[in-house]
Amino acid sequence: MLETEIKIAEILCVGTELLLGDIVNTNAAFMSQRLAEMGIPVYRQTVVGDNPERLKSALAAAFGHADAVFLSGGLGPTCDDLTKETVADYFGLDMHLDGHTLEKIRRYFADTGREMPENNIKQAMIPEGAVIFENDWGTAPAMAVEDKKSGKTAVLLPGVPIEMTTLWRERVHPYLCRRSGAVIVSRNVHILGMGESTVEEHLRTMMSEWKNPTVAPYCKEGEVRVRVSARACCRGEAEGMCDEAIKKIRATEVGRFIYGIDVGSVENALLCRLRAEERTLAVAESCTGGLIAKRLTDIPGCSDAFLGGCVTYCNDAKMKLLGVRAETLEAHTAVSAETAAEMARGVRTALGADIGLATTGYAGPGGGTPEEPVGTVYIAISTADGERVRRLSMSPLRSREYIRYSAATQAMSLGLPIPDIDVTQSNGGKKS
Amino acid sequence: MLETEIKIAEILCVGTELLLGDIVNTNAAFMSQRLAEMGIPVYRQTVVGDNPERLKSALAAAFGHADAVFLSGGLGPTCDDLTKETVADYFGLDMHLDGHTLEKIRRYFADTGREMPENNIKQAMIPEGAVIFENDWGTAPAMAVEDKKSGKTAVLLPGVPIEMTTLWRERVHPYLCRRSGAVIVSRNVHILGMGESTVEEHLRTMMSEWKNPTVAPYCKEGEVRVRVSARACCRGEAEGMCDEAIKKIRATEVGRFIYGIDVGSVENALLCRLRAEERTLAVAESCTGGLIAKRLTDIPGCSDAFLGGCVTYCNDAKMKLLGVRAETLEAHTAVSAETAAEMARGVRTALGADIGLATTGYAGPGGGTPEEPVGTVYIAISTADGERVRRLSMSPLRSREYIRYSAATQAMSLGLPIPDIDVTQSNGGKKS
User: Fold this and answer.
1) Total-model pTM
2) ipTM above 0.95, yes or no
3) Interface touch B314/A303, C-beta < 8 Å
4) pLDDT given for residue B187 in this prediction
5) For domain A266-425, which architecture applies?
6) Largest CA distance in chain B
7) Which of A271, B178, B298, B412 is deepest in the core (most CB within 10 A)?
């Protein structure tokens, strides 16, 4: 293994299906993000088709700037798959059949009750001297091909995103840490209820002046994440540095808007809290139309805490399933604090849950009234102690998708211990 | 305007946020797909940061092969935004202030009740001779910068996806048609219940031999789309050619699996059909957990036909909300044809809908039994005529996300006039 640190990277994705636009290149974003976390700048991302000449010229162009090129795709068993061969050719390396890799591929097929087709042998051909990343999640072996003379490295990964991301986490990240002689640990700080620019204001010094650990904000669908990354000679020390940095972030104004560390999402944070408190949840959705339930049930094992819910898209459903009173709908309309409260209480009672959440509003593009324009959503929480309602006012220029997603996020946040401050209005003018 | 046809294209996306992996590059996929439809091959997609030197060298590299480069991003009002300036510099063109564009930008701000900041004037600076694509959906003007000497063209579009895609449809597509002296019309044929390879088998001749119209399949989350594109001197003729091709596709075995033309999605096809028949729908979801309701309510105006539904993630909810009998759950378990049928009937009755749909199954990764492993989902439809149930067996190796999405799609397809043939098993080994 080369023992030089990687200073500049490029990303090179291979696949005609990318050039045809049949699939979106999530691999490039994933690899870029992971490299940024490690402090390795990415100068360029390139996509070429399954064409060895163009791949070779893209490789040469990438190595013109970078000391490492991260490739995904083209490691399959068919004759189209030529990434490995092209990289070996570029570095002037021979290929040899790797017995251990072949044995692994055979076993992979045996374990899923199939016989290995002959052309999969191709996947066990490895450029001489390559560092093999054992693939326990598929048949394409990943590897780092290092050129001792020039000090350049090509890291080859399969194109199927789930395989690629798993291999990155389990094999490539440790390899890069070994190369840099350091361990890099990252933590995501999840923030809700404070806009990105305000977060940046409070953390400005950390963001601009700290070199290790680094502190960087990411804005993601209406919430803010701050990623803290520390580099040290051992994991314990890097973790300690992250913890220390997070303690400092918590001590700022941002602190009380933090709903979790490495918790993935609001829905997961809510489920974790419910499990810890042994409480159960039911949801009643009008404008979000099933999105809250969908996001909760995206998470395996959610049934510990999530009982179910009702999508009550018409008034009749609100009355029949949730017991919302006709008088309430008449006096206040379906988009009102009163209706939201009755929905939350209704679903909690109907399902015998500890907590009921509800949404009702105008997601657009049509609908709304002068007083309650598109973007107005009432969210409510009901517990044995009673109901609490918030009114969200998002910009009517926001997309239906954004309004629904953000309303679902904020409704779930009612079950988390963060302040009730509506910042959606102030985000109205931002890029979506 | 240049009157030469574009033979080879490259795509060049500009934005440091792409290189940091903060956003996924959907623009490249969109542009590639649109160009493929028009028969213009894309040789490479490249992403560079907001760095004029690297942008200029990427531009030079792209024009090394391509006669047109499609750029997105870097047209904003800040000093980081340098795409326009770099392209003008590359072609050796001066920039001038375009009065009409400036007026449009001023009006855009006025219409949203804001004053135009001074730095937005920058957005009205245009390279000399550029073909301006008026932007009615934002402030960044899009344009084609044509180099008369070399015959090369740079098409500049903003980076915000909704603005970019709208401008493409309304301005760039017609421009490209004018350039090629032809009108290109595309139609999407939506197919469900027949696997991609079988579709390809039946349409092989059309796909490989037809040059105009072209016929190309796209596999998308468990369903197949066939895109028919025709080029002619006027729209009517191109449309006629598409219609003729679709008639031929309908005449093959594929025909009876077609659920719509240009209908967007199964959920939209179902809503259109319900509206046409003035019927209403309610859904009961266990393993799909709100996903069907979410997908239906993604569509504005769905409330004409969609009344609502229940997410019954636990047995108790199935009994309380849908009236599923305890004996049924005990004798057959929650994942059974009997439970699915009672759920569909229950939700139809509870909401007074014409049609009830239901799902219950094991989405994984945990759960399942030897007889009913992960990937087993029962889907049911209930009408006044009674219930109909189908058992889906997807590969247990499929992701939870895939199993849920595909089950939701197939459940909705029960309301469409296509045959009940389960092809999910045979897709088990495909890339997801």
Assistant:
1) 0.83
2) no
3) yes
4) 93
5) Alpha-Beta Complex (3.90)
6) 81
7) B412
